[in-house]
Amino acid sequence: xxxxxxxxxxxxxxxxxxxxxxxxxxxxxxxxxxxxxxxxxxxxxxxxxxxxxxxxxxxxxxxxxxxxxxxxxxxxxxxxxxxxxxxxxxxxxxxxxxxxxxxxxxxxxxxxxxxxxxxxxxxxxxxxxxxxxxxxxxxxxxxxxxxxxxxxxxxxxxxxxxxxxxxxxxxxxxxxxxxx
Length: 180
Known about the structure:
- The chain is of the alpha+beta class.
């Protein structure tokens, strides 16, 4: 990658390491390296791969990484990619700053494309549950946790609206790892 402009980014794999959808993180790192990624690392076992790619690879990375993972593991794996700068903006634009004190109540669903205006206005939620759309991200404040959330369950029935969710602790960790 000498001389080429590079970008630090994060690939967020959807619905891996649950049930039969197992993706070993060492194999995920190898796949990312085979696709030209450098300084590749994974975070947790939930399908987070941090890597540096040539800037001209970035637009195709969700499709190429998803296709390579699908071919390797035998099931479809949608991938959403955010650059380090985009993740820094996700942290900065958090519409629920008070929820950071209880990070297990704050989640971000990363979408491939921005949703249509009002796309989630019909989702039911319990008292205190809130959803805000900022660009391609859905911020979820779930004060009673994700496991008992009507809002999170309704969003999951829609297939995360084409995205993948991470809790706030993971979002901050990924933003930090991709800032280098």
